[in-house]
Specification:
Chain lengths: 478, 99
């Protein structure tokens, strides 16, 4: 059995046609993941007991003639910032090396309820802070497409396992592009749903006004299926939206003729030439599909990075205050007083990028600076959101690059934090506005590096986003 | 340099972060560069703009409240399971008050 090329649909067909059982599939998927993982370091750990238990449940349901759910038997990987009861969850941090969550995230419970089989937990930048996966305390992930390059971040492990075929689909989290950018670097599909669409109960908080959970997969259809399973109101997360969840896969009907698409000029001026050429070819494909493409302007774009790195770090400095040596496993061994225990635990436990962001966030919130930084950034955020609202009066969806350049070499940007932050320019705007956005593969450079196209739509209109992405994917980019 | 070493140490104190001298110098340089970039926000006119603290969507004020019914909590053993030093059903910490 070749597990590396499976999709959700293919798994379903195989199970219902008795080609293989869920247990056979899970065992083979675990074997393959274990054999392939040393190449990329994408999984931090596999969860064979949990996976086999889930697979057995699916086989029992099938034997009883019951419908085992839309994800029946599907091997799923989960970013290590999402809590899995009884399965160590480190957030890519030394601080949580031995942390075993006492409960499941709602997204985890829902995907297992739907028959999903969680294979293991994926590597990521520490507390999801980074754009290259080089900030993990457990070593970087290598991009399966080009092993000397980064997979993107922070959900680098989740994108890599899907590209490598060591999971069929994966869950990631996105605060400033952490699903879409690695999806684009690894040549897979990655979706950041509307803010509030998916419960964050059990997602380790980074920046609460920006955090999302979302799916990654080989195909648009797989991500649509997975989002349909995890989306919807959850009483355990007061920010989860009480909005109906449509059948996303029903929208994959190819009906995109006449769709009005906006191409923001601010997103095209700094794109590397090959990525820009691929993007232009992608736009031609959309035009051939009958879409009405026009140039639009999102004038506040230039201020997005500054705005984001105030809001995200301010919220992070507050959220990460809880790692103080009292409750979460790691405590410094060298402290006489309570105050020293806090300081030493955090000084020894956090990696450089987390410290940098905690420092920046603490600074912008400190006495005398609040109005100049945090409040100002919230006003600029309102301008960015207004840009999108204005654009959506005129167009049904926006298409844009995901990243200014394809996957870069390991180590290339680690010493220049500002350059790393600036590379998030095209993805952080969607998070700031809270609108749904995704990356869909849009061809490869001459060197064979994947490039993604981003599609953004109105709040809660994932349907149009999926419909367009699916039509684009089927039309091909070669 | 806009940011002084004293300010970096002050902020590290607020954040309860013990930094080495090398880290203080590194973050002084990094934060200085990042703050210089961030200062560009001052050029943007935001007069009359309401700050956006969160993403809101059209719904009733009470839509996100759950029913006011008590549900079983996590429980003491589970809550303490990850404590570096549990004891007597509590989280133990170094002495707070000096004699």
């Amino acid at each position: 059995m070749d597990v590396s090329s499976l999709t959700i649909e293919r798994v379903r067909k195989g199970l219902l046609g008795r080609e293989f059982s869920a247990c056979e599939l899970a065992a083979e998927a675990l074997r393959f993941a274990e054999a392939e993982n040393p190449k990329t370091n994408a999984y931090l750990r596999l969860a064979p007991e949990r996976a086999m238990a889930a697979a057995r449940r699916v086989d029992e349901q099938l034997a009883r003639g019951e419908d085992p759910g839309p994800l029946a038997g599907v091997p799923v990987a989960v970013k290590d910032v999402i809590l899995t009861k009884g399965v160590t969850t480190t957030c890519g941090s030394r601080l949580l090396e031995h942390y075993v969550p006492p409960y499941d995230a709602t997204a985890i419970a829902r995907l297992e309820q739907a028959g999903g089989v969680i294979l293991g937990k994926t590597n990521c930048d520490e507390f999801a802070m980074g754009s290259s996966n080089e900030n993990s305390a457990y070593g970087p992930v290598r991009n399966p497409v080009a092993l000397d390059r980064v997979p993107g971040g922070s959900s680098g492990g989740s994108a890599a396992v899907v590209a490598q075929g060591t999971a069929v689909v994966a869950l990631g989290s996105d605060t400033g592009g952490s699903i879409r950018q690695p999806a684009s670097f690894c040549g897979v599909v990655g979706v950041t749903p509307t803010y509030g669409r998916v419960s964050r109960y059990g997602l380790t908080a980074f920046a609460s006004s920006l955090d999302h959970i979302g799916p990654l997969g080989k195909t648009v259809r797989d991500t649509a299926t997975l989002l349909g399973v995890i989306a919807g109101r959850d009483p355990s997360d007061a920010t989860s939206a009480d909005a109906p969840v449509p059948d996303y896969t029903a929208a994959l009907d190819g009906q995109v003729k006449g769709l009005k698409l906006g191409l923001p000029r601010e997103y095209l001026k700094d794109v590397a030439s090959e990525s820009g050429d691929l993007m232009a070819r992608g736009v031609d494909v959309l035009k051939k599909l009958g879409c009405d493409v026009r140039e639009i302007s999102l004038p506040a774009t230039d201020s997005a990075v500054a705005c984001y790195y105030i809001i995200a770090t301010a919220e992070a400095s507050s959220n990460l205050a809880r790692y103080d040596g009292v409750r979460y496993t790691f405590r410094s061994g060298s402290a006489e007083t309570l105050s020293d225990m806090y300081r030493n635990t955090r000084g020894e436990g956090f990696g450089a990028e987390c410290k940098r962001r905690i420092m920046l966030g603490t600074y912008v919130l400190s006495a005398g600076y609040y109005d100049a930084y945090y409040l100002k950034a919230q006003k600029v955020r309102a301008l960015i959101a207004r840009d999108f609202a204005n654009a959506f009066q005129e167009v049904d969806a926006i298409v844009a690059p995901v990243s200014p350049f394809p996957a870069f070499k390991l180590g290339e940007k680690v010493d220049d934090p500002l350059a790393m932050y600036l590379s998030d320019i095209y993805t952080i705007t969607g998070d700031l506005a809270g609108i749904p956005c995704m990356s869909v593969p849009c061809g490869k450079t001459a060197e064979g590096l994947p490039v993604g196209m981003q599609i953004l739509t109105r709040h809660f209109d994932e349907t149009t986003m999926f419909r367009l992405a699916d039509a684009f994917e089927k039309a091909g980019t070669a | 340099m806009k940011l002084t070493e004293t300010e970096v140490r002050y902020v590290a104190g607020l954040a309860n972060l013990n930094l080495s001298d090398a880290e203080v110098r590194k973050f002084q340089a990094d934060l200085d560069e990042i703050l210089a970039h961030i200062d560009r926000l001052n050029e943007i006119d935001t007069s009359g703009i309401e700050p956006m603290a969160q993403v809101l969507y059209d719904t009733e004020e009470t839509a996100t409240l759950r029913a006011d019914v008590a549900v079983p909590p996590l429980g003491n053993p589970a809550a303490l399971a990850n404590a570096p030093q549990p004891g007597g059903g509590y989280f133990k910490v170094p002495k707070v008050i000096e004699r």
